[in-house]
Amino acid sequence: MLSSAVPVQAAETTAYQQLNLFGNVFELVRARYAEPVDEQRLIYSAINGMLAALDPHSAFMAAQEYRDMQQRTSGEFGGLGLEVRMEEGLVRVSRPMEDSPALRAGVKANDLITHLDGSPVLGLTLNEAVEKMRGRVNTPIDLTIQREGVAQPVVVRVIRDIIRQPSVSYRLEGNAAYIRISSFSEQTESGVRRAMTELRDQLGDKFEGVILDVRNNPGGLLEQSVAVVDAFLERGEVVSTRGREQGNVQRYTARRGDLAEGRPIIVLTNNGSASASEIVAGALQDHKRAIVLGTTTFGKGSVQTIMPMGDQGAMRLTTSRYYTPSGKSIQGTGVVPDVVVEQARIQPLRTATGAAPTAAPPPAAGPGATTPPDYQLARAIDLLHSLAVYQKAPVVN
């Protein structure tokens, strides 16, 4: 018993010595730096430096940043109102949302964003670029854009505003229920259930299956991703989280009830699908309840706990890692699709006379003529229809 207490006491002594060292450095900087310093900024920077040394997802949020985060998870945040994807290291605009700051400023579908406030996008992940575009309401950001048919880059100033973006949007794609989940907020499960009810009512007996689109979805609330998987599983584990202490395992399981009633499901993913999105893709894939189509996901397999710090903000700390039902961690590796389909631009072939064929292009990714055709979605629709036909085929003995 005595011997076990010695190293603990020694460790505590060392920790206090290091804290004294920090205090000494802080006092010297405050007293002798070449010009006056912002003491709060020094403290916050030191805290963030400590947390950043742990992993990319742990961080300290000052009071305003914490409020912004709370707005995002409740479905409202300060942003530009853009649906974007990563393309060759740059950010491609899929479409500006209706009545959004980006649309009012003149951003167009298919614009390629190369710089944010003069800083290159190249080298950032999609999630990092999106976070830079979000921010305080009424603050400006300059987007440097390469636009088709325009020789010189275009700089567009957009003023951030509250984006009231539903977590879930949906529509019919042929005889499929197409459900796009842009983030996992408090509204997600109810949005998915509402979408399934309305689309099933519209399709009736023609209902062939579901396409869940979590491309460019950076994640959100763990409980909401579990609820979405639960909505399409009859039973079984959805995800488990494992913390620092041995035996500190929490398992989330599905309850009976499948909104799709056994019909085929396709989950669309790409490198912008992270965290809670990967829980959905990984769980449905492991249970062979869905086919994952697209490209490999981001690979964020950790859970962050928000710890409020009074009126000074909050700390976001990685407290556990999550594992798919098969026991696999996707940290750093992501969910690998069952069917790999890279996003591609579709152009009509030319005949020998130079005329374009009359075949219709694949379905668009969203409403409106300005949205370019979505190759991955077109392949998902084809696959879902094939699975539905096969499922309905009579068995011949």
Task: Outline the structure in words.
- The chain is of the alpha+beta class and 397 residues long.
- The protein has two domains: 80-164, Pdz3 Domain, CATH 2.30.42.10; 168-348 and 359-389, 2-enoyl-CoA Hydratase, Chain A, domain 1, CATH 3.90.226.10.
- 31% of the residues lie in helices and 26% in strands.
- The protein has nine helices and 19 strands.
- It has helices spanning 2-32, 39-52, 63-73, 101-105, 126-133, 188-203, 222-230, 276-286, 375-392, and strands spanning 59-62, 76-79, 82-87, 90-96, 112-116, 119-120, 140-146, 154-159, 161-164, 168-173, 176-181, 209-213, 237-243, 249-253, 265-269, 291-294, 302-308, 313-323, 339-340.
- The strands form four sheets. Strands 3, 4, 5, 6, 7 and 8 form a six-stranded antiparallel β-sheet that branches. A six-stranded mixed β-sheet has the order 10-11-12-15-16-19, sandwiched between helices. Strands 1, 13, 14, 17 and 18 form a five-stranded antiparallel β-sheet that branches.
- A hairpin with a 4-residue loop joins strand 17 (302-308) and strand 18 (313-323).
- Helix 7 packs parallel to helix 8.
- The radius of gyration is 24 Å and the shape is globular.
- The N and C termini lie far apart (73 Å).
